[in-house]
Amino acid sequence: MPGWDADFEAFAVTRSRPLLRSAYLLCGDQAMAEDLVQTALARLYSAWPRLKRRDELDGYARTIVARAFVDETRRPWRRERPVAQLPGVTSPGDDAEATAGRIAMLDALRSLPPRQRAVVLLRVWEDLSVEQTAEALSISAGTVKSQLSKALETLRRHPNLMSEARREGVRD
Amino acid sequence: MTDQLTELRVAMDAALPELELSPDVVGRSMAAGRRRRQQQAIAGVGAAVVLAAGVGAGFAVASSSQGGGGDRLGISSANVVASGYAGSMQFDVYAKRGSDCLYVRTPTATQAATCWVPTVPESMQALTLSNGYQLAIVGAPRAATAVVFTLRNQPPVTVSMRHTAALPHWRFAVFVVPPNTQLPRFDVVPHVAERPDDGTTLTPASP
Fold it and tell me: B98 touching A, CB under 8 A?
C-alpha cells in the first residue's frame, strides 16, 4: 500500500461531500453523483504522487467531476430520460413551497444541455474565472461565454423559475 | 461575479437537498485508483492479457453500454456484445431480447457443469470445457451490488447474471484459454476487476 494513502484518504474524506453537491447539481441524481465523485477520486488517487501543488487539488477534482459528467452523458445508456418527478429532492423538514422551489431549480438546470450545465457549475457554482472554466472543459473562453449566456437565457425563460414580472419582461 | 450569477448561485445552493455519501465511496475510489494505476502501467492492454495468459488465449470485454440499452441489463436485442479468439477457437458473447442472461457461444461445450462467480471485486472462477479449454468470467460492477454469474457448461455456455438491485453499469470480461495454459492474472484484467493485493494467480475450478 503506498505511503501516501493516508494523505489521500484524509483529502477524500474531507472533500467528497462538497464534490457530491457539485456532482448532484450537474446530474440531479444521487446515485450518478456518487459515481461521478468516485470517478473523480479514483482519477485523483492514480495521479496523486504526480500532483505537486496541493492547493490545486480541489480544482482538479472539480474539473474531473465536470468532465466525467459530460463524458457520461455521451454514453448511450446514460442518456437522460425525462421523469415526471425528480427523485430525492426533498429533505426532512421541507415544506411544500421549499420543495417546489428545489424542484423548479433542479428541473431548470436539467433542461440545460450537459456542457452548458458544466459551464454553469464551474463558472457560477465553483466561481471559476472564464479562463479557468475554459481550461477545465478544454474549450475556448469565447465558448464559455456563449454557453453561459445561453444557459442564463434558458434559465431566465424557464417556466418554473420565472416570476410573473419576469414573464412580462420576457414577453416584452 | 455579477449580481445575476450570485443570484443563480444562491438559488442553486437552496435547491440542493440533504445529500449523504455512501460510507464506502472513499474506499472504493481508492481501490479503483489503484487499479487505474496498474492499468496505466500496462502498455497495450489486449497484448498484455494474451501474453500473460499464454499464447493462444483470448479474451473479450463487454459492458452494459454494448447492446443498445433498454432493459435492466441494458441489452435489448439479440446481438453479439463481445467476441474473442482463443487460439483458433472463436467465442462470442451475446444477448437475447427480453432475457437477463448473456450467453457465451463456443463451438464445443458439452460438459454439464455450473460454477458461481460472485462478482464482488477480486473474485473470479473458471470452468474447464470438455475440449480442455478453460473459460473464466470476471465481473466488475461499479456499484457496490452483489452480482452472480452462473456458468452452465451446456451448449451454448450460458452466463446468467442476476443482481440484487438496479445496476446501471457493469462490465465483465470473458477469457477463453487453451488447455494447459495458465489463466490470466488479475493484474492484467484492466477495466474489469479489482486486483487482490496479494496478486493471486487464478486457479481453474475443477471440471
Answer: no
Separation in Å, CA of B186 to nearest CA in chain A:
17
Q: What CATH code is assigned to A93-172? A: 1.10.10.10
B103 CA: distance to closest CA in chain A (Å): 20
Instruction: Provide the total of helices (H) and of strands (E) in chain B, helices listed first.
Output: 3, 10
Q: Tell whether B1 lies on the interface with A, counting CB pairs under 8 A.
A: yes
Q: Does B30 touch chain A (CB under 8 A)?
A: yes
Flag whether residue A17 sits within 8 Å of chain B, measured between CB atoms. yes
The C-alpha atoms of residue B110 and residue B115 are separated, in whole angstroms, by 15
Does B32 sit within 8 Å of A42, measured CB to CB?
A: yes
Query: Does B17 contact chain A (CB < 8 Å)?
Result: yes
Nearest-Å Rg of the Cα atoms of chain A is: 18
- Quickly count: other Cβ atoms within 10 Å of residue A122's Cβ: 28
Cβ separation of A17 and B5 shorter than 8 Å? Answer: no
3-state secondary structure of B200: coil
ipTM of this model?
Answer: 0.77
A1-79: CATH, from 3.40.1550, 1.10.1740, 3.40.50, 1.50.10 = 1.10.1740
| Threshold 0.90, pTM exceeds | no
pLDDT in tens, chain B (207 residues): 677 888 888 888 888 888 888 777 888 788 877 766 655 543 223 222 222 233 333 444 433 333 222 222 333 333 444 444 444 444 455 444 443 344 455 443 322 222 223 333 333 444 454 455 555 554 444 332 333 333 444 344 444 433 333 333 344 445 555 555 554 443 323 333 332 333 333 222 222
Between CA B32 and CA A39 the distance in angstroms is: 8
CB A127 within 8 A of CB B1: yes
Is B142 in contact with A35 (Cβ distance < 8 A)?
A: yes
What strands lie across the sheet with B58-63, from one edge to the other? B58-63, B171-177, B134-139, B125-128
